[in-house]
Specification:
With about 250 residues, chain A is an all-alpha fold. Chain A is built from twelve helices and no strands. Chain A starts with a helix and ends with a helix. In chain B, about 70% of the residues lie in helices and about 0% in strands. The chains are: A mainly alpha (about 250), B mainly alpha (about 200).
């Protein structure tokens, strides 16, 4: 590498890094006008520099992402909708219209069990947190879907963290003990009303209330969720869902 | 202990531009928007992992665009991120050739607006490709370039964070690494041209 090449590279780098000043900078700018290849080389180095900056951003977001995935609750998934071909859809629509018509005509009741089944889905813990140790026996059993075992653990409120309280509540729901589910989900909220399990606890408390025909309490939770667009379960509480619960409440009277 | 900070859109953009309170700002974005954005992906044929990957990609793009003054707050941050998330996911489904993309109509979440981000989505492939090129650089090169061009460290600080003998050695190494990266990118002229449009267009 000769001296002129060295000088060219030195100037390019200094200019790229904003370290070329005064006369030297002016001379370099003039030289770029005369030498298009110099300008092109500078552009290429700038692109390399921007690519490094992009990698820096990616690394930064990646490290925060791992931290936040431990903090934030997993996003609940909608029940999969079966793909239907158009004629099947049409037939289903006709059947649905008939069904609605019959229901309206007979004023048949909406069962709390059916409402619960329609809106309940199993809470799933993340499986993609890579290498994170599972700290509590409750979580271990929950991941194995061994809900019954959780409900028979010698549970002491003081010994459980918020996550374990939440998972215990869900386990009681899974095993059909809605009174205890209600109790543990409320313990979860009482322990920390800003925890990552708050939104899920409120939704499942609403469902437990529906199952137990405690419609006033269930509606209170549902209205709270529907009134908060940032609530993680906001999209699960439609007007129709609330109307059904209100109708079930009326029919109970 | 991290406090749950909350910034207005203007404060958030200023933080990202200046690099001050960057970690807190990114965490706030996660707390406020991860639920909404990831539920869109999950409810439109995506997995939890897809939702996380797309969200990360959207946040990287958002920070990059703010720092290059390509996002100036014409729409709210929420609307912009939602649009980026939706379009990035549709673009990903298209890339995967998924039948869902052809067969399904993808709904907007009720009440959410969208802005046109198609020109940013068009940059997606080139950005992902160049990131894979940078990832192939040696660890020593990546470290020295990141310290200088991302962490904005001076030669003296870099010297303290590495095992090089003196500042001149660091300077030479940095230049060689940058040239090496430039050469690696330039081996794909189409990529280099796309990046010219993205970074200098």
């Amino acid at each position: 590498m000769d001296n002129s090449t060295n000088d060219r590279e030195r100037l390019l780098l200094l200019y790229l890094d904003g370290e070329l000043k005064g006369d030297e900078e002016e001379m370099f700018l003039q030289r770029m006008k005369d030498e298009p290849s110099l300008k092109e080389e500078l552009d290429h180095l700038r692109i390399a520099r921007e690519s490094v900056r992009l990698l820096g951003i990616k690394n930064k977001v990646g490290s925060i992402h791992r931290e936040m995935m431990n903090e934030l609750p997993e996003v609940p998934q909608r029940k999969p909708v079966r793909k239907l071909v158009s004629y099947t859809l049409a037939a289903a629509a006709v059947l649905f219209a008939i069904f609605i018509g019959i229901r309206t005509y007979t004023n048949s009741s909406i069962s709390s069990g059916q409402l619960y089944t329609d809106h309940f889905f199993s809470y799933e813990l993340s499986t993609s947190r890579g290498g994170e140790p599972i700290s509590s026996p409750v979580e271990q059993l929950y991941r194995q879907k061994n809900y019954k075992a959780i409900t028979t653990l010698p549970l002491s409120e003081d010994s459980l963290d918020v996550k374990s309280k939440f998972l215990t509540g869900i386990s009681f729901m899974e095993t059909g003990d809605f009174a205890k589910a209600d109790l543990w989900l409320k313990k979860c909220l009482t322990a920390d009303n800003s925890s990552v399990y708050k939104d899920a606890s409120e939704y499942y408390l609403a469902l437990a209330g529906i199952h137990e025909k405690k419609y006033d309490e269930a509606l209170e939770w549902l209205h709270k969720i529907q009134g908060d667009p940032r609530h993680l379960y906001h999209s699960k509480v439609s007007d129709h869902f609330i109307q059904e619960v209100e109708r079930a409440k009326e029919l109970k009277k | 202990m991290d406090t749950n900070s909350s910034y207005s859109d203007n404060e958030l953009i200023t933080n990202i531009k200046t690099g001050r309170l960057m970690d807190e700002s990114i965490k706030m974005v996660y707390r406020q928007y991860f639920g909404l954005l990831s539920s869109y992906v999950i409810n439109n044929s995506g997995s939890q992992q897809d939702a996380e990957d797309i969200f990360q990609e959207v946040i990287v793009s958002f920070i990059d665009l703010v720092q290059r003054a390509k996002f100036r707050g014409e729409s709210s941050v929420k609307t912009f991120l939602y649009s980026m998330n939706r379009n990035t996911w549709l673009n990903e489904l298209k890339r995967r050739g998924r039948s869902e993309f052809r067969e399904r109509k993808f709904e907007l979440v009720r009440g959410d607006e969208e802005v046109d981000v198609s020109h940013f989505i068009a940059d997606r492939e080139a950005k992902n490709e160049v990131l894979s090129v940078v990832a192939r650089l040696g660890e020593a090169c990546k470290k020295i370039l990141l310290l200088f061009y991302y962490e904005n460290m001076g030669m003296k600080e870099i010297l303290e964070n590495t095992d090089y003998e003196n500042e001149q050695v660091v300077r030479n190494k940095k230049y060689k690494c940058l040239k090496q990266l430039e050469h690696m990118i330039n081996q794909n002229p189409a990529l280099m041209n796309s990046l010219k449009n993205i970074f200098h267009g």
